[in-house]
Amino acid sequence: MRLVPPEIESKLRQKGFWPESWTARAGLYVVALDIIAFVLQLLASHLRPKIAASLGGWVTFLSALAVVLFAIVGFRWLRSQILWRLRNRLIVTYVFIGVIPVVLLTAMSLITLYILAGQFASYVVASGIATHLRRMETANNAIANELAVKLERHAEPNAESLLGLRRSSPQWLKRQVCARYGDRPLPTCSDKNRDRLFDAPKSLAGDFSEIVQDHGLFELRTGTTIQLGTEKLRVISSEPLDQSLMARIAESLGEESLGEITLGPGDSGAGPAGTGGAAPGDSHPPAPAFTVGALPPENGFLDREISFPGALSVVNWSTGERERAGVLVRVRTRPSVLYEQLFAALGDFARGLEFVLLSVAIVFAIIELLALWIGTRLTRSITSAVAQLYEATKHINRGDFSHRIEVKSADQLATLANSFNSMTASIEKLVLEQKEKQRLENELVIAQEVQEQLFPKRISQLESLEAYGFCRPARTVSGDYYDFLSLHSDKMILAVGDVSGKGISAALLMATIHSAVRAYSLEGVPLLREPTAVGGGGGSDLMLAAELKGTETSPAALLTLLNQQLFESTPQAKYATLFLGIYDGPTRRLTYSNGGHLPPILISDDGSSELLSCGGTVVGMFDHVTFPEATVQLRRGDIFLAYSDGVTEPENDYGEFGEERLIQIVRENRHLPLERIAELVTAAVDDWIGDNEQPDDVTLVLARAK
User: How many domains does the chain have?
Assistant: First the structure.
């Protein structure tokens, strides 16, 4: 139930009068209770004096509590207003450096030593956790690279090194390592853990190494992503941040307690892991999730207990939000233990350090006198560096990424300036790379448009034959090829091919084959009954074609000429498969020759099928190759079916799509229009592939005798 209307609340927030912190809200609640108690005291002063007297004590207590709470709120507001400016911060710093240390030098020294000791103890724990995370990250990268190599080789994607580590190292028994290739999980962990680990927030979509909070538990988690072609391999390792791990990290340090920091109302966060969080308004410190180790025994009067908290950054696995102080690590130890760890490498020389510290204490007063002068010099360097950074940000805001900060010193501010220069250089490089990528993408689009023009847009149908072709690239451009060429009104060349490889190189070779087939066929390459004569010497093929121009075209001769041309003009690793057939309309005869392509299928009107298997090796790989040819008689209703391996070779959990399944679909729908048959075949292939990416170009050529 809202006590204040939303519009009033919005206006108060804009003016800064709406209580945001729990202290301000608690102050308002206390004031409200104080007013109620005061009114009740006035009403009861005449009727019930004893009750009025007891209420008077509560009024006094609530008034004092309200004053304290609002004093805290006022101090916080004043601090935020005054210390926002860097100049004011430096002035306050001078006050603390020049006045307070002189009065409280001894007290500050003791406090400083205590804080340094506590911070060192926290650092030992934090450094141990960070070191363990780096080891996990290294192991995770090694496992990911091992899986990537096996996936590239199409081997069984199992991590043998992971199995060995789990057998040889006890700590690996608690570590979960899960992998996923694309949408397909790999067998490295249980299904339950896989779903939990891969339910990662968007902020951790790439490589990461973090302490995460997942379902109320703290875990060390690292992830590696490797791009394999069009798919991504993602490997995630997770290990609970439990008592045994903390005991190994902070061994012989003392007692360590780990738990979640409880935040006040209005902030995100919950209570310690396993406690269900703290209720709003709780002021007691959170109880630790667990405690390991024990406080070392006292070693002298000055060896007092040191208890100091430290905070670790934690990522909420459900929301992806980073909590800078998500895990509270409290260490209880003694100065003697820290002294041994800090100066363990010095041995007996550590005693000499005590005299050095005493000398430092003597000259500390002189250093204090020089603090003002040093502070003035430091102020100038700090404000100058901040001004340079501010000017640089204005250049970046205008889109000027060529601006660089002039670095003259060798301190942390100089490192920050160098980091800024490195950042702007990286952004400038990224912009250029993005432009280059956009240019390449535009060129691919143009290549796709050009290639689409190579496929026949309109097929000249014969009186006794109807034909249809279809090609769907797996990428932007295709390496498959099909064509229909009408030699005369009663003859047609049917061509189907597949170029080795994918991408631009395959598309260029496909265009070469397309041009050569059309050039040779339209110029009238002779019917060679002695194919070995073609290509017998350099240039003999073209000379023979020119001499006998106008005679009948032969599929075997076309393949022989094309093989010689591709062998001489393309790298040895490049080749193609090509089926060429010449259909004679009056006789319904198909004369064909096959250069290594998948044998086409002839499906009769009665449902029987026949493979057109006459042919030779691939085109463009070997020199002086001849190709046999054969002739097959087509009857009314017979369907000629040619296809690429992108139709029959896609796989799922049940194996390949296969030639038999293709024949069955065409046989059951052989009386439908050819375009409809092609749609049914491609739909069946898509269903077989499922959600996976199309692995290869899908090409279909259908012809039916009429």
Answer: 4
In angstroms, the CA 451 to CA 446 distance is 9
Residue 590: the pLDDT is 93
Q: Which parts of 598-658 fold into alpha helices (H)?
A: 645-648
320 and 404 within one domain: no
Which residue in 379, 414, 397 sits closest to 85, CA to CA? 379
- Phi and psi at 351, nearest 5°, equal -65, -35
The CA dihedral of 32, 35, 40, 45, to the nearest 10 degrees, is 160
Together in a domain, 421 and 474: no
C-alpha angle 288/290/296, rounded to 5°?
95
Domain for residue 109, yes or no?
A: no
For residue 583, what are the domain limits?
A: 463-690+697-705
- Mean pLDDT (the chain) is 78
Higher pLDDT, 642 or 325: 642
Q: Under a CB-based contact definition with an 8 Å cutoff, are residues 180 and 143 in contact?
A: no
Distance of alpha carbon 355 from alpha carbon 122, whole angstroms: 27
What's the rounded mean pLDDT across residues 271-288? 42
3-state secondary structure 1-37: CCCCCHHHHHHHHHHCCCCCCHHHHHHHHHHHHHHHH
The CATH number that applies at residue 501 is 3.60.40.10
DSSP, collapsed to helix, strand or coil, labels residue 706 as coil
**441 and 473 both lie in a single domain:** no
Contact 567, 595 (CB under 8 A): no
Query: SS3 of 413, please?
Result: helix
**Confidence bin at 663 (pLDDT 50/70/90):** very high
Q: Is residue 95 domain-resident?
A: no
Report H helices in 16-104.
22-47, 49-82, 86-98, 100-103
Bridge-partner residues for 308, per DSSP?
Answer: 331
The dihedrals phi and psi of 283, each to the nearest 5 degrees, come to -110, -10
699 has a pLDDT exceeding 70: yes
Do 332 and 380 reside in the same domain of the chain? Answer: no
Report if residue 568 sits inside a domain: yes
Q: Which of 662, 639, 663, 650 is nearest to 690 (CA)?
A: 650
Measure Cα distances from 389 to 83, 85, 324, 429, 539 in Å. Answer: 20, 16, 25, 20, 70
Selection from 453, 469, 472 nearest residue 461 by Cα: 469
650 and 589 share one domain: yes
Residue 171 confidence (pLDDT) above 80 = no
What are 60-116's pLDDT values in tens digits? 888 888 888 888 888 877 777 777 666 667 767 777 776 677 777 778 778 888 888
Spatial CA neighbour of 240 closest among 206, 286, 274, 270 = 274
End-to-end CA distance of the chain: 80
In sequence order, the β-bridge partners of residue 210 are: 221
Whether residue 300 lies inside any domain: the answer is yes
- Residue 324's region, left for phi above 0, alpha for psi from -120 to 50, else beta, is alpha
Shared domain check, 481 and 419: no
SS3 sequence of 126-175: HHHHHHHHHHHHHHHHHHHHHHHHHHHCCCCCCCHHHHHHHHHCHHHHCC
Among 8-22, 125-139, 161-175, 357-371, the least confident range = 8-22
- Transcribe 386-411 into DSSP letters: HHHHHHHHHHHHTT-TT--------S
| Integer angstrom CA distances of residue 287 from 260, 273, 515 | 8, 9, 79
